[in-house]
């Protein structure tokens, strides 16, 4: 399907530029780009693939409908996305794309709050269902192209799931399974659509990993030669010219510049596009506000926060609590840096209240950050008991979080122990 399914599956990127992003980036650079290369050239119509089984994923009419459905899925409207494809599902009820679509939707709750593991089983069960179904189809016909493409994508997504959970062995093992299917597909379908995106990702992350991480140098044999600048240039071309992968290229250009290249100004325009294009996607909202905060665009950040809090309203579910948690925290920090301490305290307490509704209790990164700043505000107001309370709460979890460490230092610095 010209990479549409591949792009959505892997769009739920990594959770920041930390050391634990290493395996995620390796899997991404190897599996995502190769999966994209496994798709087919636009305008070919229905193809029989290598065997006798026709390919729905190469059908131009299906591709057209799927593009709209993908937009709905990105905008967190699963039912609407499925409605757009209902006639196809009626005609091809046994196609592996349908359980895959459900697995793609099950990934979003995991991505939206990576600290909360309560959605992991739902995603993994859905993903494993896809793999098992594809195994059965390929046992019946090893040349069933669509089943092999879908299985490759799911193995890549499972690898990404394990990397987010720091289970590196399982991550690499599933990544290699994705590659195994890819190489089989490449033999029979060597055409490379939307090439700039796939190869751009490949070029960038291959160079980035070798340059930034010593572990990756030992794995150089697994990676192609890379060039960070060339990779970014190819992704830029993909963002402008890709038929299907333009939005995905925009996401990764924003993500890479924000988290890996430390260029929040460059990231901003890309993330703003996603914010405006997919207003129901709370993950994109949060990324956009982060980029505004890091570029010191106070007024724009405050407006985006106001609009996002209005969007969340009083809806009581975990996704909206995660959105409110980050919006209140960011606004509180803005007020803090601009010496509006009363407004900062109000927002930080609201962020803390949202954090306390969410898992894992007492260990969430935003909760620790809110506690740290509340402790600093208490010191400034002369309330040493409250300062001790906030810093002690943030210092207690056995975690390496920056503000947990800073809170331990603060207890000593202000002689609060």
What do you see in this structure?
The protein is an all-alpha fold. It folds into two domains: 259 residues, no CATH class; 127 residues, Serine Threonine Protein Phosphatase 5, Tetratricopeptide repeat (Alpha Horseshoe), CATH 1.25.40. Helices cover 72% and strands 0% of the residues. It has 21 helices and no strands. Helix 8 packs antiparallel against helix 9. It starts with a helix and ends with a helix. The relative contact order is 0.09. The N terminus is likely disordered. InterPro entries: TPR-like_helical_dom_sf (IPR011990).
Secondary-structure blueprint of this entry?
Elements: H1 4-11, H2 21-37, H3 60-74, H4 78-84, H5 86-91, H6 97-112, H7 120-140, H8 145-164, H9 168-188, H10 195-212, H11 214-218, H12 228-241, H13 246-260, H14 264-277, H15 282-294, H16 298-312, H17 318-337, H18 341-355, H19 365-381, H20 384-395, H21 402-413
Helix pairs in contact: 1-8, 2-8, 2-9, 2-10, 3-4, 6-7, 7-8, 8-9, 10-12, 12-13, 13-14, 14-15, 15-16, 15-17, 16-17, 17-18, 17-19, 18-19, 19-20, 19-21, 20-21
- The ordered H/E elements are HHHHHHHHHHHHHHHHHHHHH
Count all strands and give the number. 0
Evaluate the radius of gyration. Answer: 23 Å
Distance between the termini: 61 Å
Whole-number total of structural domains: 2
- How would you describe the shape? elongated
Structural category is mainly alpha
The biggest sheet, with number of strands, parallel, antiparallel or mixed sense and barrel status, is: none
The whole-number mean of residue pLDDT values reads 82
Seen as an oligomer or otherwise, the chain set is single chain
Strand content: under 5%
The number of helical segments is: 21
Return residue spans where pLDDT drops below 50 for at least 5 consecutive residues: 1-53
* Helix content estimate: over 70%
């Amino acid at each position: 399907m010209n990479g549409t399914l591949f792009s959505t599956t892997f769009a739920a990127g990594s959770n920041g530029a930390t050391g634990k992003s290493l395996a995620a980036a390796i899997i991404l650079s190897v599996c995502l780009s190769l999966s994209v290369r496994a798709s087919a050239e636009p305008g070919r119509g229905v193809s029989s693939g290598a065997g006798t089984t026709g390919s729905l994923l190469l059908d131009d009419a299906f591709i057209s409908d799927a593009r709209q459905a993908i937009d709905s899925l990105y905008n967190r409207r699963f039912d609407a996305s499925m409605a757009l494809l209902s006639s196809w599902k009626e005609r091809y009820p046994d196609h592996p794309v349908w359980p895959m679509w459900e697995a793609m939707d099950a990934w979003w709750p995991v991505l939206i709050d990576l600290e909360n593991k309560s959605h992991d089983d739902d995603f993994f069960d859905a993903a494993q269902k896809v793999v098992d179904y594809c195994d059965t189809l390929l046992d019946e016909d090893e040349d069933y192209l669509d089943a092999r493409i879908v299985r490759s994508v799911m193995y890549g997504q499972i690898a990404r799931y394990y990397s987010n959970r720091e289970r590196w062995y399982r991550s690499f093992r599933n990544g290699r399974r994705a590659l195994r299917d890819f190489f089989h597909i490449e033999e029979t379908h060597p055409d490379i659509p939307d090439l700039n995106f796939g190869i751009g990702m490949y070029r960038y992350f291959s160079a980035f990993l070798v340059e930034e991480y010593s572990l990756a140098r030992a794995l150089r044999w697994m990676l192609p030669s890379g060039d960070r600048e060339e990779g970014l240039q190819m992704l830029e071309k993909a963002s402008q010219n890709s038929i299907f992968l333009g939005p995905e290229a925009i996401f990764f250009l924003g993500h890479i510049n924000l988290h890996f290249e430390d260029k929040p100004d460059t990231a901003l325009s890309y993330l703003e596009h996603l914010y405006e294009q997919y207003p129901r996607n709370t993950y994109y909202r949060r990324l956009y506000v982060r980029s505004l905060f890091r570029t010191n665009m106070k007024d724009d950040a405050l407006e985006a926060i106001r609009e996002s809090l209005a969007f969340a309203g009083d809806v009581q579910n975990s996704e909206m609590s995660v959105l409110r948690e980050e919006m209140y925290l960011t606004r509180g920090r803005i007020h803090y840096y601009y010496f509006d301490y009363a407004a900062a305290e109000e927002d930080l307490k609201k962020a803390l209240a949202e954090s306390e509704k969410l898992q894992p209790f007492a260990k969430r990164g935003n909760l620790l950050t809110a506690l740290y700043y509340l402790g600093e505000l208490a010191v400034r107001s002369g309330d040493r008991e409250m300062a001790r309370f906030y810093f002690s709460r943030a210092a207690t979890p056995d975690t390496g979080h920056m503000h947990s460490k800073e809170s331990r230092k603060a207890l000593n610095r202000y002689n609060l122990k």
